[in-house]
Amino acid sequence: MDFSEQLDQIDSPKTRLAMQEVTSSYQNGNYRSATNALYSTVILDLVEKLQTLSSMYDDHKAKKLLDSAKRAKLRMLLMLAGKMI
Fold it and tell me: Whole-model pTM?
């Protein structure tokens, strides 16, 4: 399956690069890696879209979601740091 035409339709350079990794893993038969990379790519794209909504359109719901995600990320990092000590 050739994904090159679909990759060209992705606007975000970061998302396009991440999707290239997904398709490379898939084409090499590394399906577990492709699935994990796809999950990360979807999250990356979602965060980028929320940041665009927040900054360009002053979307309060997008800001709230981003703030909530930042707090959750911080809690996770603190929890992991506590387990390392």
Answer: 0.83
